[in-house]
Amino acid sequence: MRNVTLILDDGSRFHGKSFGYEKPVAGEVVFNTAMTGYPESLTDPSYAGQLMTLTYPLVGNYGVPPFTFEANGLPTFMESEKIHAEAIIVSDYSERYSHWNAVESLADWLKREQIPGITGIDTRELTKVLREHGVMMGKIVFDDEPDNVPEAQYAGVNYVDKVSCKEVIRYNEGNGRKKVVLVDCGVKSNIVRCLLKRGVEVIRVPWDYDFNGLDFDGLFISNGPGDPDTCDAAVQNIRKAMQNEKLPIFGICMGNQLLSKAGGAKIYKLKYGHRSHNQPVRMVGTERCFITSQNHGYAVDNNTLGADWEPLFINMNDGSNEGIRHKCNPWFSAQFHPEAASGPTDTEFLFDEFVKLL
Hints:
A hairpin with a 4-residue loop joins strand 1 and strand 2. The chain is globular and about 60 Å long. The strands form five sheets. It has a seven-stranded mixed beta barrel with strand order 1-2-8-6-4-3-9. The model has no long low-confidence stretch (mean pLDDT about 95). By secondary structure, the protein is an alpha/beta fold. It contains eight helices and 20 strands. The longest helix is centred in the middle third of the chain and has 11 residues. The protein has two domains: about 140 residues, Glucose Oxidase, domain 1 (3-Layer(bba) Sandwich); about 200 residues, Class I glutamine amidotransferase (GATase) domain (Rossmann fold, 3-Layer(aba) Sandwich). Its EC number is 6.3.5.5. Keywords: Amino-acid biosynthesis, Arginine biosynthesis, ATP-binding, Glutamine amidotransferase, Ligase, Nucleotide-binding, Pyrimidine biosynthesis. Pfam families: CPSase_sm_chain, GATase. Belongs to the CarA family.
């Protein structure tokens, strides 16, 4: 294993060993506190442009499942067709794996997809630095190539455009009782699966596609990476769709932020984001609490919601917004991931609520 160094923008250095593809890389360094789910997280398009630090110390011990595809074109065990994170940073990589569904090691998968992986990093200390300072840009540099230093920019880059589909894709065509337009900002496959499982036809469109001329019964706005302020075209199309006050609309993650922007609210960047399987949220106006899977670096400013809108969920750790709803029209959203792949399935009922409205 070659020696590598993770260099943060504040000058902090963390030394480790390379176990993935050997290339220097740069991106926004974030941390995820989930104990499992690295195949799903690595293939989550919301991690585009980011160096993903896993705080759970042992990673790789259950290997990687096969990259097979269902008849509808969705990957069977992954959340997209490839790894989207720029790199993975772990404390202790397990070279040996054991799992009934594993076909290769994490290292072999990373090498095949040309994604760096580094081990031997004190991820507890790295996470403490990121919590104190906030997320930072970072670079993974090979010690024997000190002059080969990568550069990257995260703020202001439209990562949604990089990961969204490029043409309209239809699922369950002609078989669904109702049709749902899914605005693909970097959608996770399990969101599509959750919709198909409920018997609807899904029309997946690129993030900036004007879907308003299509025949459909409901609008779904997906998760996605980066800054929602780079996605004004999507906001304008959503705003146009909202002229039909009876049209059901449901948004997840980035979808929560874009629906909020369409309703006039503002977005701000969180200090270090929410990336885990254990974020507690409360449904506003009730004592109902849920444990949720999350992956986002931006949040809706509750103070900027219009008079016709109200928070639907609140994060119980920091009080930030976790979803909104319109007081009269059938429009609502969640900042967390009800489809939870991987993660708890406490809130998958939100898909049922959406389909009932169609």
